[in-house]
């Protein structure tokens, strides 16, 4: 794979490098890296290093990452369709098979989601990608016209308009989302909202969001929901590899799922207990996606342990207790360092992230902060306590209570800038991986995607009406939370 870089700089000015071996090495390196790390994490520097060349050599031939990926993923146009079968049903089956063969190669699966996002904003790129399918589209158009002539298709069918629709970026996004449960490798499906009749409103199109703790659980669900509504999402977390079977999911997997549905996202590894990581997180998100107008502070300290530093091997997984659940840790058994860590992640990091992101919102003239809280902030409540079977969460609950107060303080100070700051709590338990490790089985729970839909709604509220509130997610979804509009001087709470 390594090429001799000494031959790169012999062609003066712009244009294709004179040595075709360099082109081949670059395209092969791009294809390999796409499969290994995905579109969002691919950089021209990484491609140049893998190919044994320089970034300047890449830029002489390809003006952008999207152009390079386009050529690496589609090195040749799809083969033309076979001879017509004689009836429209067989012809359509043949067309679908040809399309499947194009879109289900590993490289195209890795490349197309990111390309779709870029194609949406770049008409020239969209035209170049679609030009690879000219012969296929010509054949499809001819088959449709023949079907109309034979009376098998409605005479009002417009083949040209149908081809135009097939070439739109949303249709391409449908073609690259795989069915994880399928037992037949290679088959493809559109995202759920594109195939069930649910409207794709994309109410957050043009906005950039940052979600912490997004490698799994509620954070992951919220990131996916925001992206489905059109937001570009910075997926933040510590986990780049699964290091403990109690905590499945990585930031890269969340990004891959967003891209597979035609969305735009980047993965940013950040330890929220480290000041430099918090600052870098905001800078990296802003540089990649633009000014941040939606911030979701979701990260919390739940299951014990922490992932290894980048590049290190995962630690051995601790054995599970014999009864399968360790139960809640008691107050007397929690050291101060662990108690403090809850506040570092849930409160101090949220405080700093709001201070760093809100200037973007002020400049934009609007913004939304959603702080994820919990009923644990109000437990165990007033004593005495005849039933103590449930346990308490002094660190987790205490940090969430502080976050709710911080929500009100921030909302008060930002009220003049059209920025809504609210806290969102599950109305019912949601068995995320962290909670499931500790908790007994609950009789009545809510799914994480339901909670995520409520988070999206809070990223759309009018800051003049809904701010400084702690709201249950079911109250958001049924609209009843608006009935609790706070009057001046009151200190109401929905839960």
From TrEMBL:
Pfam families with a match to the protein in the record: adh_short, TetR_C_11, TetR_N
The cross-references to InterPro entries, in alphabetical order and at most eight, read: Homeodomain-like_sf, HTH_TetR, NAD(P)-bd_dom_sf, SDR, SDR_fam, Tet_transcr_reg_TetR-rel_C_sf, TetR_C
Q: Give me the reactions it catalyses.
A: a (3R)-hydroxyacyl-[ACP] + NADP(+) = a 3-oxoacyl-[ACP] + NADPH + H(+)
Which residue intervals are the DNA-binding region? 43-62
Tell me the compartments it is located in.
Answer: Secreted, Cell wall
Which Gene Ontology MF annotations are present? Answer: 3-oxoacyl-[acyl-carrier-protein] reductase (NADPH) activity; DNA binding
Give the keywords, sorted: Cell wall, DNA-binding, Secreted, Transcription, Transcription regulation
Protein name in the entry: 3-oxoacyl-[acyl-carrier-protein] reductase MabA
């Amino acid at each position: 794979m390594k090429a001799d870089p000494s031959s790169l700089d012999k062609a003066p000015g712009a244009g294709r490098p004179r040595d075709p071996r360099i082109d081949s090495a670059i395209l092969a390196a791009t294809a390999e890296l796409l499969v290994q790390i995905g579109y969002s994490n691919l950089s021209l520097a990484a491609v140049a290093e893998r190919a044994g060349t320089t970034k300047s050599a890449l830029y002489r031939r390809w003006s952008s990452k999207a152009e390079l990926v386009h050529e690496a993923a589609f090195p040749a146009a799809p083969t033309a369709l076979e001879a017509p079968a004689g009836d429209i049903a067989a012809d359509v089956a043949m067309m679908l098979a040809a399309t499947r063969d194009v879109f289900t190669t590993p490289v195209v699966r890795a490349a197309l989601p990111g390309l779709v996002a870029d194609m949406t904003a770049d008409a020239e790129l969209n035209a170049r990608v679609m030009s690879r399918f000219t012969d296929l589209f010509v054949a499809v158009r001819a088959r449709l016209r023949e079907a109309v002539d034979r009376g098998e298709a409605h005479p009002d069918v417009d083949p040209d308009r149908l081809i135009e629709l097939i070439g739109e970026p949303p249709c391409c996004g449908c073609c690259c989302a795989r069915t994880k449960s399928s037992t037949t490798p290679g088959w493809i499906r559109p995202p759920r909202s594109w195939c069930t009749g649910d409207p794709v409103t994309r109410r957050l199109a043009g906005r950039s969001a940052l979600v912490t703790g997004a490698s799994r659980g509620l954070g992951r669900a919220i990131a996916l929901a925001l992206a489905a509504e059109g937001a570009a999402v910075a997926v933040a977390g510590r986990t780049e590899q699964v290091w403990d079977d109690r905590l499945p999911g990585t930031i890269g997997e969340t990004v891959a799922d967003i891209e597979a549905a035609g969305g735009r996202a980047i993965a940013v590894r950040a330890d929220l207990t480290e000041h430099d990581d918090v600052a870098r997180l905001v800078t990296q998100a802003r540089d990649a996606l633009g000014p941040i107008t939606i911030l979701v502070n979701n990260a919390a300290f739940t299951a014990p342990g922490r992932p290894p530093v980048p590049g290190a091997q995962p630690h051995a997984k601790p054995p599970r207790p014999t009864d399968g659940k360790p139960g809640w840790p008691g107050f007397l058994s929690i050291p101060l360092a662990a108690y403090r860590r809850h506040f570092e992640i849930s409160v101090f990091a949220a405080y700093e992230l709001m201070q760093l992101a809100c200037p973007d919102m002020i400049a934009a003239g609007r913004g939304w902060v959603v702080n994820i809280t919990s009923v644990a902030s109000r437990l165990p409540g007033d004593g005495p306590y005849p039933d103590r079977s449930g346990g308490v969460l002094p660190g987790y609950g205490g940090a969430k209570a502080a976050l709710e107060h911080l929500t009100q303080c921030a909302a008060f100070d930002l009220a003049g800038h059209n920025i809504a700051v609210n806290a969102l709590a599950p109305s019912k338990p949601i068995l995320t991986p962290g909670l499931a490790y500790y908790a007994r089985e609950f009789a009545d729970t809510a799914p994480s995607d339901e909670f995520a839909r409520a988070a999206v709604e809070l990223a759309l509220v009018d800051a003049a009406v809904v701010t400084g509130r702690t709201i249950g997610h079911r109250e958001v979804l049924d609209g009843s939370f608006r009935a609790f509009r706070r009057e001046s001087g009151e200190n109401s709470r929905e839960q």
